[in-house]
């Protein structure tokens, strides 16, 4: 279901949850967690709100959350505090009798919506016509289960922002060319880090079904799917120029979902885990401009009063879909689980899971 479809649906949250005070919700959530113990698992992505993160059994980047889901064999219910593709991944990696719940079905990801399976199949037949059996598909985990299944069926793998370099390197041991879905920026930044020149990168436009490339097709090594993150595209080279003009001592650190020009002008780039660890390890008094989602940037600012930390873009807002998960939705999800209901369950069908797990395991085996 795309974000637009999801937004058209009511999220189903009963009105009584909107009337509760924060203290009442905290007390109820704490009580349910205590009562359910190991039968309940509550992972949260680093971009979740503090009001949700306070209850998390674990927090992590996309790779860590996938690894944690795969390892958890005890929980009957996994209430996933993140976005739809993460909950799908958890469902694929957990056992049949474990239930994955997303507290608000409207928590999608605009980037994942930029590649659907029909577009991908059309692109593949076009590209195979052009390049023959020389292409390996790799997909960023920020993609639907159907895309992961497609990639798994065609010998490829998933990647996350923390292992993209290793996975693209592996991809080139399998085939001459990589089709990288759905984030053109992560694909471009990663391939460039591995020494692939920009002139060897083509862009597939899924709206017009065309390959954007000016040279001879023989020279193409990477085909980038024309998708992007609507949060990270808001960091610009002008933001970096302004930060450096105001204070030349500022270190700039960004997520690799930012554009190539932004990543090239930054001092560091990496996954949310890498950003958190870099700031943790930095000396007191150092200065940082961070280019990633605001819930995480605000949390890092609060946790490090000894450093000067700002958002790279002063007008940034949080990821709206990550923000769909809040205390009322979390409490609702937990009360439904406690009473044996499977409201907002995420189910990936068996055929899709069969192939998607191949793509995920090719990554997890190398992580
Ligand atoms: P990571 O936490 O894996 O760096 O991913 C960021 C992201 O955009 C998740 O949607
Ligand atoms: Fe998707 Fe971007 Fe939000 Fe991550 S930050 S969930 S990639 S829209």
Task: Give descriptors for this structure.
Rossmann fold, binds iron/sulfur cluster, binds 1,3-dihydroxyacetonephosphate, four-stranded parallel beta sheet, 3 domains, six-stranded mixed beta sheet, globular, alpha/beta, 367 residues
Structure notes:
- By secondary structure, the chain is α/β, with parallel strands linked by helices.
- It has three domains: 133 residues, Rossmann fold (3-Layer(aba) Sandwich), CATH 3.40.50; 117 residues, Rossmann fold (3-Layer(aba) Sandwich), CATH 3.40.50.10800; 80 residues, NadA-like (Rossmann fold, 3-Layer(aba) Sandwich), CATH 3.40.50.
- 42% of the residues lie in helices and 15% in strands.
- It has 15 helices and 15 strands.
- The strands form four sheets. A six-stranded mixed beta sheet has the order 7-6-8-11-9-10, sandwiched between helices. Strands 13-12-14-15 form a four-stranded parallel beta sheet.
- Helix 11 links the parallel strand 12 and strand 13.
- The protein is globular.
- The two termini are 29 Å apart.
- The structure holds 1,3-dihydroxyacetonephosphate and iron/sulfur cluster (SF4).
- The site of iron/sulfur cluster has 13 residues, from loops.
